[in-house]
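Protein modeling request. Please complete all fields; requests missing the sequence field cannot be processed.
Requester role: graduate student
Desired output: 3D structure, token encoding
Chains: 1
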Amino acid sequence: MAQPLVDSLNIDIAATSRYYFESTQTPKINIDDLAYGTRGELQVSHRFGVVKFDAKLFANWDSADDHRRYTDIRQAKLSGRWGNFSAAAGMDTFFWGVSESINLVNVINQSDIRESLDNKVKQGQTFASLSYRLDAGEVGLYFLPAFSAREFPLRPAYGLPISDVERYEDNDKNGGIAARGLFYVDEFEFALGYFSGTRRDPLLVRHPQASELTPFYIQTENLLFDAVYLSDSLTYKWEFKTGRELGSGFVASNIGLEYPVYAVEEILQEWVVIAEYVFDDRGDRAESHGDNDLFIGTKFEFAENAAQLRLLYSYDMDNASQYAEASCQYRLNDFLRIKAKVMGVLSATEEAKRLYALKNEEFVKFSIHYAF
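Delivered output (372 residues):
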């Protein structure tokens, strides 16, 4: 019998569409209603003795926006474990954090906002790591040799076109270094982390009399903490970050609760209600629109047809700005599934710069996926 070339191979191909409810108010951008496209994702893994190779390749094509015609290596790494030690190198996407709304401590990868505005989808990051497994946890060191600037799509727009030329604080452009320790104590799980390097989220700066916004990447140094505690009736979550940027210190926190609802169990496999409060004393320099915001949401998973529904609403306590999004996916059979998402700024004042820039940029996106 011939040996397979790889241990596993998965392919996801999708037809996509995106519809904007209003015409853009941003000059020089002419995407006003419907755009369609295709996307594909390939995952492959294979083991060579104690060493394993994992790869995930992503490609997207869009009919209206050439910024959404791109490819990315989400993952291409070699990893191995020798006793309690493990090492890995290549490209990968990491997820650090526990929150549902904004992940303050998820600082390693650049966000792919061409795919998702909520910073949940990440681009691949070159890295080398060394980890040591403990009796109840693991500690690791990460070297990040390269930095990738964020790619902005034409829409949603930010009031002015985004320049293709970015600037860096002190002309310093580096991936950075990081460390993380993850620990387990009964129902309590927590992590301590450190990161130093170029911040992945840029400031959008308008220079005097300029007709576009320039991404400005600053240097950041972070101490990170995230934790989950499981009680009989509630899940407590906390993400905390402090550090220095632009010569001054800052503090950011996201503290939340999750409450499982066990009503209508014959219909719902899972029903969770979520409440989170995000505070960030950097104000306009924060990495999201959450600087004094309450997030309320819920997520459902239906038992019979593997359908999932997620709703999220945020309220800014400083200026009463409001944001909402809804997403769902439904599995038609073993190979086909559909996804949909709608987002919108319900209200925003000029003081809430991040949300105010997204007014009139509400959209809905839909995709149908074939996976094998």
